[in-house]
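Help needed: design a sequence for this.
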């Protein structure tokens, strides 16, 4: 009798008695993961993923190596099995030396495919570059102008010279698109019959509107101001973000068929109850519109402005008389924006900040620009009282020392007793934080946090009210624009799920294995790479800067953009789209950081004209060894060393280019990770040295 009958996941099957459980399960439609199995070679039993339960056996069995028996009852999926598979994956990942995605993409709050859009700029395909960016953010120009670039902080080139100018390149791609006169508009899915109300036409609200409209939902935006843009329009000076560029970019959003109703404020012109009754879902992108007051004697003086209120007044074109000397309290971007703004009115700005220059949260480039434009800085100082005088204000400050780090990770400022001093000024501006206007949410029934922000589920951005979602500064407090944009995009995913009556789970988190943080990466990673200076941003002449609101940073021209794009190391793995190790890690929720310890050594063999080998990504599945030996008959690869030092290498330790390998690429076809890749499948491999680096 050549057939046996067994039961797999409750289904009876009849298969040849020479088959393994894995083969029988595949015929039965069961999905058993494996990284070391291939039907063309003998089983190797190395990855430990294909475990199953056999009735009557206390131990899990490797299905690729156990032959079927008549009457066998097999279970291929259970909590115990999934836990074992997850641990097996985490052990493999603990040694894996490679980045699924460039760390720039992981660090970006919106997870823009930075490597992808920069590559397309390098290929001079600016249209495709913009399409890639707008899968994640609809504001490439605006964010390119104002983003503090957390992506650049983790750029691998920091270990070599300077980070790639990612934001400047993003801006370049967006500007190239706008200058065509026919900017990119994505396809809109067929009408779903659902209608969403968006409150607030700021970065969060417009982003939510953009991604909801792309999914086919009708969208109406309610905006309290007479123009869209939120803090991008009213809170950022025109010398950083020109109004005409922002307007043109917003038009690419509203042109998708989004209705915007201006001068319509929540709580004043429309209620949340009315929106919930009329629309299928609501998104609140109401921002944090009020400056935080200071609780000191004299802090309620009429000569004291809030930073956001002053910038808003200037952006509306209203006259602002701040006098000749202006104290700005704070160290963030709003404080520096105010200082540079009043400098353009002819005033002398004096920034008073309670920490040191190193702890200032403002962009370094903005701090430097403020210094160049003549702004004064009184660091490690804090106001403790304000007195009105006939000439203006007398502000008493106290010197500060730095103590232990606080919750922000920065050293806590501590007053130095007896160190008071005074500064005379005409106006004082407070830029020490922003608050959600309580009048906007009063009476809505929305649950708030103890910090006065809207309470939401961190994953889905759902509020305490059914069908109402929120994101951006109203949830996080005042934060960078790209995080508000990312919140709008994430909310669109959750709202879409809600409208489709699916379980609202929110967007998937980006999953990426990594070879480590910048200080953990082996020096060999950068061996033989050439240092290339970062392309400098062209700027407006200094004699024009302090007397005009013209744009200071002028943007890259084509040759500058191409030169900067060429600096990108393209760190992300070219095999990320079909890496089975990553696929299973996602499926089983594997944590690549669960098991610490030493990773495999990094080096690259690109000596062969047809393929490239990165042993650090190898999981010792042996498929290349067995396929080359048993299918091709060449024996190019072999196992060397034992234990953790075990590796798959070309025979005699030769570079691949010195072996008998004929470039058939069968090893690439069976490799479950990016350890072996065909050159033709790679982007411009600027990260790879000419010869093997050990």
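Sure. Designed sequence:
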């Amino acid at each position: 009798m050549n057939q046996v009958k067994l039961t797999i996941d409750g289904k009876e099957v009849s298969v040849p008695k020479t088959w393994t459980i894995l083969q029988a399960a595949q015929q039965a439609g069961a999905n058993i993961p494996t990284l070391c199995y291939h039907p063309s070679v003998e089983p190797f039993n190395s990855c430990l993923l294909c475990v199953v339960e056999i009735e009557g056996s206390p131990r899990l069995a490797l299905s690729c190596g156990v032959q079927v028996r008549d009457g066998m009852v097999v279970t291929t999926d259970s909590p115990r099995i999934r836990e074992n598979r997850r641990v097996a994956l985490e052990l493999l990942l603990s040694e894996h030396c490679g980045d699924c995605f460039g760390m720039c993409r992981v660090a970006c709050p919106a997870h823009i495919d930075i490597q992808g859009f920069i590559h397309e700029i390098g290929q001079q395909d600016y249209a495709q570059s913009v399409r890639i960016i707008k899968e994640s953010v609809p504001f490439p120009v605006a964010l390119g102008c104002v983003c503090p670039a957390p992506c650049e902080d983790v750029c691998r080139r920091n270990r070599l010279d300077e980070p790639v100018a990612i934001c400047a390149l993003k801006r370049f791609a967006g500007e190239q698109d706008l200058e065509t006169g026919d900017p990119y508009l994505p396809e809109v899915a067929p009408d779903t019959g659902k209608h969403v109300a968006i409150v607030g036409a700021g970065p969060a609200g417009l982003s939510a509107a953009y991604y909801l409209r792309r999914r086919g939902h009708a969208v109406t935006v309610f905006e309290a101001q007479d123009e869209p843009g939120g803090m991008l329009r009213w809170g950022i000076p025109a010398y950083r973000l020109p109004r005409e560029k922002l307007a043109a970019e917003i038009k690419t959003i509203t042109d998708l068929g989004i209705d915007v109703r201006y001068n319509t404020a929540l709580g004043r012109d429309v209620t949340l109850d009315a929106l919930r009754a009329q629309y299928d879902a609501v998104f609140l992108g109401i921002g944090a519109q009020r400056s935080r007051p200071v609780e000191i004697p004299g802090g309620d003086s009429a000569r004291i402005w809030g930073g956001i209120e002053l910038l808003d007044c200037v952006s509306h074109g209203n006259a602002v008389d701040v006098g000749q000397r202006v104290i700005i309290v704070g160290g963030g971007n709003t404080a520096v924006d105010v200082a540079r703004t009043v400098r353009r009115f002819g005033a002398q700005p004096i920034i008073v900040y309670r920490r040191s220059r190193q702890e200032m949260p403002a962009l370094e480039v903005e701090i430097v620009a403020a210094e160049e434009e003549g702004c004064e800085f009184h660091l490690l100082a804090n106001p403790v009282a304000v007195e009105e005088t006939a000439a203006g204000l007398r502000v008493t400050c106290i010197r500060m020392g730095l103590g232990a780090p606080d919750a922000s990770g920065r050293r806590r400022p501590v007053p130095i007793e007896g160190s008071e001093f005074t500064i005379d000024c005409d106006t004082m501006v407070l830029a020490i934080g922003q608050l959600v206007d309580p009048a906007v949410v009063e009476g809505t029934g929305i649950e708030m946090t103890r910090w006065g922000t809207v309470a939401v589920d961190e994953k889905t951005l759902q509020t305490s009210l059914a069908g109402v979602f929120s994101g951006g500064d109203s949830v996080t407090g005042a934060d960078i624009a790209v995080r508000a944009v990312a919140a709008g995009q994430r909310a669109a995913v959750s709202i879409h799920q809600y409208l489709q009556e699916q379980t609202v789970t929110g967007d998937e988190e980006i999953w990426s294995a990594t070879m480590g943080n910048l200080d953990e990466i082996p020096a060999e990673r950068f061996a033989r790479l050439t240092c290339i200076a970062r392309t400098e941003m062209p700027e407006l002449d200094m004699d024009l800067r302090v007397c005009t609101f013209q744009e200071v940073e002028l943007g890259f021209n084509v040759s500058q953009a191409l030169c900067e794009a060429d600096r990108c190391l393209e760190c992300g793995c070219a095999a990320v789209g079909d890496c089975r190790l990553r696929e299973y890690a996602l499926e089983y929720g594997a944590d690549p950081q669960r098991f610490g310890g030493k990773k495999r050594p990094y080096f690259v063999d690109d000596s062969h004209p047809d393929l490239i080998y990165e042993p650090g990504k190898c999981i010792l599945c042996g498929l290349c060894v067995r396929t080359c030996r048993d299918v091709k008959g060449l024996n190019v690869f072999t196992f060397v060393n034992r234990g953790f030092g075990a590796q798959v290498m070309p025979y005699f330790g030769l570079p691949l280019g010195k072996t008998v390998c004929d470039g058939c690429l069968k090893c690439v076809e069976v490799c479950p990770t990016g350890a072996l890749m065909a050159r033709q499948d790679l982007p411009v491999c600027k990260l790879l040295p000419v010869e093997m680096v050990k």
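Residues 282 and 684 are 45 Å apart (CA to CA).
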